[in-house]
Amino acid sequence: SQTIHQWPATLVQPVGSPLSLECTVEGTSNPNLYWYRQAAGRGLQLLFYSVGIGQISSEVPQNLSASRPQDRQFILSSKKLLLSDSSFYLCAWSARKGVLAQYFGPGTRLLVL
Amino acid sequence: GENVEQHPSTLSVQEGDSAVIKCTYSDSASNYFPWYKQELGKRPQLIIDIRSNVGEKKDQRIAVTLNKTAKHFSLHITETQPEDSAVYFCAARWAKLVFGQGTRLTINP
To answer: What residues are paired with B99 via a beta bridge?
Structure first.
C-alpha cells in the first residue's frame, strides 16, 4: 500500500532563516505531488504541484520554492522565512493515471518567530 | 474559472440528527468530487468520493449525492455522533483538485 511521509513534524525557525521541508511517497511510482499551506482555522491553499521530476508548477507567487529531485521526493524551500510563513504545510499525492483520489501527508507545523 | 463554493461555513447539530453540507462547482467539465474530514491538528482524510457518472454513493452513515445539471453535490451524515465533529472540505477535480472553503461541524451531545 501507499504511504506518504513528511518531516519534520514541527519546526520553529527565526525570521530570515532558510527552510527545507521534505515529503516522500512509498508504494507507488510516477505520482503527482502537491504542497499545500493551511493557516490556523482556514482552508487549503495549493502552493505547488508536480507531474514529474524537475516539473514544478507554482500556484501562488511568494518567497517559497519547490523541487522534485527524485520521482517520489518533493521538497519545499525558502531562502528567508517571513513571520507570515507560519502555517501548517501539507504534502499530498495522487496517481498519474487511473484512480483520481488524492491523499495527504501528516503535515509539518511551522512557527516563524 | 474553476471554483467550488461550500455552505454552510459552520453547522451545529444534536447528536443523532442528520447533517448536510452542500457544494456547488463552476465548470461542468469536472468529473470527480471527493470529501475530506479534518480533525483538529490532523491531516485531511478522504472519507468518500463520487465520479460524475454516478448520482449517489453511500458508505455506512455517510452518503454523497451529485446533481450534474445543477452542478452541485452534497454530503449527508446520518445518526451523527460526537466523533463526527470536524472540519469537512468538498472538492472538485479539473486538472487538479479545487477545494471548498470548509464547514466546521459540531455535534452537540
So the answer is: B91
Q: Inter-chain contact B46–A101, Cβ cutoff 8 Å?
A: yes
**Which residue among A103, A105, A107 sits closest to B46, beta carbon to beta carbon?**
A103
- Gap between the Cα atoms of A46 and B94, Å rounded: 14
Instruction: Report yes or no: B86 and B77 within 8 Å, Cβ to Cβ.
Output: no
User: Cβ separation of A100 and B49 shorter than 8 Å?
Assistant: yes
Query: Coil, strand, or helix at residue B82?
Result: helix
**Structure confidence by residue, pLDDT tens digits, A32-79:** 999 999 999 999 999 999 999 999 999 886 899 999 999 999 999 999
Q: How far apart are CA B103 and CA B82, in angstroms?
A: 16
What is the percent of chain B where pLDDT is above 90?
Answer: 89
